[in-house]
Design goal:
Length: 433
Amino acid sequence: MKTRHSFKILGSLIVLVISCLAACKKLNIVTTTAKSQNIYSYLTSNPDQFSEFVKMLDKTGYRDFLKAYGTYTCFAPDNNAVLSYLKETGKASIDAFTDDELKNIVKLHLIQDTVKTVSFTDGKLSQVTMLGQYLITGVSNANGVSTYTINRQSLVTQPNIYLSNGYIHVIDHVLKPATKTVAQLIEANPNFSIFTQALKETGYYDSLNIVNNPDTTRRFLTVIAETNKALQDSGINSYAALKAKYSKTGDPRRADDSLHLYVAYHIIFDAKYIADIVSAQSQTTLAPLNVLLTKLDDQTILINDLDFNGVHEKGIVIERASSDVTATNGVAHTALAHFTIKNRLPVRVDWDVADQPELRKLTSIFRKLTAVPNSPGGYGPFPLGFFKDITWQPGASQGISYGCTGPTNTSWYQWWGDVMIMPMSTTATNARA
């Protein structure tokens, strides 16, 4: 009896709870605030790991927005990483850096968006850092373990720490900001002395030396520079020899000068890393109407490797080890051989519209004289989808048809005497081509 009484009480309570829930539907408030900490509070709550990086945030004032609402990604160097960086730069402490130096360091570690490791590919992240420079990601394999890399400078030791205002990826080295423009990077390398002089004489050195270019189409630029050896292998041992070979007007700054165009052909729009280059078949250059054809052959990146008019033209290798060098306004790559614009003469190309693979399989029809009246158009109309790469929207009694009148027919002048008839109107049945 006691047990039965308890069940009655329990049942009454359940009914009461359900009734209360039903009556409280209008108070079912949905909140978007995450229960976890924000980025700054997470860092400060783990001083054994991040106290040095927190000092950077405090001194620069960037702690304020990292503890507020927003969407951010923070590549947080741990204490060992910061201490190693202090030793490397000869600084006794964080206070030894100027405010501007610290701001540049911190801004390189922050992205104003949420970026998880699923977006880490062999190339640049799609979002720029707060410093305005791209980060490149990759994978390092050691002792059978794969680890994400950032800027080839650090490993990600703890990825995807989700917080209320973004993500933290813990890294084992402080990321170093690029300090040189593309022009300065190339000039600083003695192996590019001839190419550097060409940049200066054509005026492109100045274009490649602008940070935050007001022309947004040229905010970032990519240069594929030729080494002195690459030029020497082609018989060009000095800038004077390069100018003598290409400068037809004598003034390399003229847009129509061949040397000017030669340099422009080595400059690509946007910041294009190796992964970006190989992901497309061509790259638009600053040389008007001229593109670089790009190709990945196993692990080798090739420029302008193609078959033209029955002849194979061997491509130019981009050296991986010395490429993907980030600048403040773009990227620099190294070409291991000399290349320039190739002026192609027009080549006649003939094709037969009626020579379709689906028709070739119809051996009783293909190029056989039709016996149907009012030929051509003796076979068809073919159903929509019959031709793999041809689509149309047929109206009533419309469709693609095929016929063969023979090469001697004087009404229809086809090469093989066959023709495809395609409706060119959605209303008129006789509007054909």
